[in-house]
Amino acid sequence: MKVIVTGASGMVGRAQVAYCSDRGDDVAAFDHKTLDISNASQVADAFQKEKPDVVFNCAAWTDVDSCEADPERAKAANTIGPEELANACRSGNALLVTISTDFVFDGTKDGFYTQRDQPNPQSVYALTKLKGERRAQNAWARTIVVRTGYIFGTGGNNFLSTMIPRAHRGERLKVINDMFGTPTYANDLVKRLYQLAQLDLPGIYHVVNDGPGASFAEFAQAALSEARLDPSSVTAVSLDSLQRAAERPRNSRLKCILSAAVGLDPLPDWKHALRAFVNALPKEAVIAR
User: Fold this and answer.
1) Between the chain's N and C termini, which has fewer beta carbons within 10 Å?
2) What is the number of structural domains in the chain?
3) Which residue in 130, 99, 246, 232 sits closest to 173, CA to CA?
4) What digits encode the pLDDT tens for the residues 210-268?
């Protein structure tokens, strides 16, 4: 199978490239330097050269606060980009699998958000991602949208992925204790993206690790405990106390109502996934101080 992965230098993109390559696929990996997905000409040239069967769009601008200050850049990466990929996929009859976010919801619901819930984005980032979902689906029927969130994995630069090395270095960690989501291990995510591509059933899917979800503080405590590091390096704070530029949903826990119907088992519990993540870290990052 011929595969294009965009955003290939990011945490999920790298994991997707590795997963597809391990399965013997012919993978063309593009980062932002080699392919601007909002540039129709560049996208068309890449598709003409590679002629993909499947495109995994892992490209996005995920700096939520910076998106508030530069909505045009956010629109290009998160809205126009998926649409241009969908246009190219339509021309080449390729399947598009594009990643969206749990932040499309406003966070006011108790419990889990499913595909039956109405999105209500509260930030520029979330709005551009939702528009990207819809434009891609409108442009090409063979589009699979995958909403996910609280992603962690090796090589990531987000808080979830860097907290253990930072704690190991003795840094003090401020962790939000009143914001809840469903932690998602990048390695499990890309496996599910691949399974969805094999099924080739267009629609919106919620892909997260199993379990009741967690706050950032709960995740941090579990991660440090798994790594046998001192949990006292964590200071719990409220979301409001950080005074961030962009609004964030207090609750963005996700549940999928389609996966079981198409024969997909739940992903491993996030605590089991966390153990796999810790075991994959360099040894020096998890040795107790």
Assistant:
1) C
2) 1
3) 232
4) 999 999 999 999 999 999 888 877 889 999 998 999 999 999 999 999 999 999 999 99
Give first-to-last CA distance, the chain, whole Å.
Answer: 46
pLDDT of residue 167: 87
Q: What is the pTM of this model?
A: 0.96
- Cβ 91 vs Cβ 139: under 8 Å: no
Q: What is the pLDDT of residue 285?
A: 53
Q: 169: which residues sit within 8 A by CB, 6+ positions away?
A: none
Please choose, from the candidates 143, 182, 152, the residue with its C-alpha nearest in 3D space to the C-alpha of residue 15. Answer: 152
- Give me the catalytic one of 125, 150, 194, 205: 125
Residue 65 lies in a domain: yes
125 among known catalytic residues:
yes
Residue 79, domain member (yes or no)? yes
Q: What is the mean pLDDT of residues 126-135?
A: 98
Q: What is the CATH number of the domain that holds 124?
A: 3.40.50.720
* Beta-sheet strands, E only, within the chain: 2-6, 26-30, 54-57, 95-101, 143-148, 151-152, 173-176, 180-181, 184-185, 203-206, 209-210, 214-215, 234-237, 267-269
For residue 128, the surrounding DSSP H or E stretch is helix 124-139
- Tell whether 281 is covered by a domain: no
Backbone angles phi, psi at 182, to 5 degrees: -115, 105
- Does some domain include residue 230? no
